[in-house]
Amino acid sequence: MNYVLVQIAKRYLCITACETVGEAAANGTANKGNSKKQADPNEKKAYSFSSPLIIPVDKAVLKDKSSVWEDPALLARLVKDGLSTMNHSEVRDVILMVESYDLTCQEYQHIRGAKRIIEGLAIDRIRDFVGEAVSDFSVIYKDYSTYKTKEVSEEITSKAFAMPKALADDLVAGFKSFSLNLIQIIPSEAAMIYAAQKTIYSFNKTVALISMDYSAVRVFIAKNGVPLYCHEFTSPVDEILQVIEEDRDLSTAAAIDYLRTAGYGFKNECRNASSKRKIDDIAENLIDDIVRNVRLVTMSLNISIDQLFLSDFLAYIPHIRNYFVGFGLAGEVMLVSDTFNTGSVVPEPSLKARDDFYKNGSYFLMNELMNCGTVFENNLIYGLKAQQAKTLDDSAKAAKVGCVGLGILCVAGLAFFGFYFGRSVVDDMIYNNTKYDYAKTLIQQRDDITQSLANQSQDAELLPRTQLYCEDVINQLDTQVVKKMKSFGSYNITHTTDGDESYSIPISGTIKDFPAFIDLQNSIKEDGYFIMNETFSVSDDPDSGLYQLSAQITTDKTTVEARNAANKSTNNSNAEN
Q1: Same domain, yes or no, for 309 and 428?
Q2: Which of 120, 338, 377, 576 lies 20 to 30 angstroms, CA to CA, from 283?
Q3: What is the pTM of this model?
Q4: Cβ of 13: how many Cβ atoms within 10 Å?
Q5: What is the 3-state secondary structure of 316-333?
Q6: How many alpha carbons fall within 13 Å on the CB side of residue 368?
Q7: Structural domain boundaries, residue 510
Q8: Same structural domain for residues 55 and 115?
Q9: How many other CB atoms sit within 10 Å of the CB of residue 444?
């Protein structure tokens, strides 16, 4: 293997080694059926990938740091140790995949212009967030256009990404101290945009890709090769793994193996009821939020999704496809590997990765990332070149100075300001376009509902609380009554708290015969949890040969506590004897 891809989650790292399929064939680690080496170095390459390794980042290891981002030397050491664990100590080149929520990002629209001016716009968009400190940031940008047309007025969407230069330098130095070369810090979203433009077929239709791995969930919507929407969300896996670890007393790595085996249906196998409730909360808060965002985008753009593709590690766990089918987001839901054909450049799991049941589509985004540019492109280590990263103000000053000697530069400067002013007007027009009014209304309604729910939660916290015995009452009813009857017709629990918490429960059903009723009545009396009223009805049913029973039982907190105390005293006496 020649490279290692590093992903950073909240509680762990995920590292995956890779090399081109041709190199994998030479090393004897590739699938022999697809080991033909690319002839043209400029063509898209297929890469061979190892099984991902999860490296837990314990709080004890972090010490006083809140994240591994704050300790580049620790990050490098964990990656170095991980490569040794994977038996890939030969790897030296590191590629750090970063998610947009760990960066400073801004999406914006513009018309066509010189590359230098467009790069200046990216710098200015980041300036909106960080002010004059923008000179301390490394900035790159990606535009969504496929450049199939050359109209100057064509509306183009771009996204700027930035991170502090000092952090990038510290990361490079940290890896270097462990004899590793950090050659690229690249946003994962760059690979998503590349996939939308080059790989996912969207001619004359609208498609969506949901990339799900151990660090993030990424979504893009594209039509005719042009991304309409691209966004990243924190992966629910981190929180789900915490629930599995606690529910089954597993390590993080073991919890991932369990999740890959059981799939999304694992929530039905939770040992504790609280674990299942936590899983439902995670699904509602994270996964449903993604679905709501996608629906909002499709409504605002007045489009419908024809095909939805699932890719990367989590797309291949059991039941996940059916889970997304249930949302009704698209006419067709498929795995990204369903689109592969003989002409596709397909990522290859290594032999060990195949043994670990990873699929070609498990590495879709990583393969796109390895192909979406040279080491100098989309790289936050370098950012935009110094001469290209001038701000619009600097460009204006250069135009004014140049016009003293060359009138043509003055004309260029005026043209530039005309472009920038026009761009500002276009932005305002886009924002005020009535086609977005419905989306704005939906967003406002969502915010109002969220605030209302928050207010209700705050009000609920102020209400007095008391422990109810209803769950225990139902369990005792099932054990003492329901299981001893032939059939149980119905019951109605009446709960009162007038001085003492009490329950009144009318019951009806069938029993074998009258002696069976006497046994039921005696067992209830001996247990002491319930009291059966003296008024009851037991009658013969000739059609069934059984007896119909109607009765009423009651219990209250005082009776239950007295009964429990008596049982505890009896158990203690038996233990002493």
Answers
A1: no
A2: 338
A3: 0.65
A4: 21
A5: HCCCHHHHHHCCCCEEEE
A6: 23
A7: 470-576
A8: yes
A9: 10
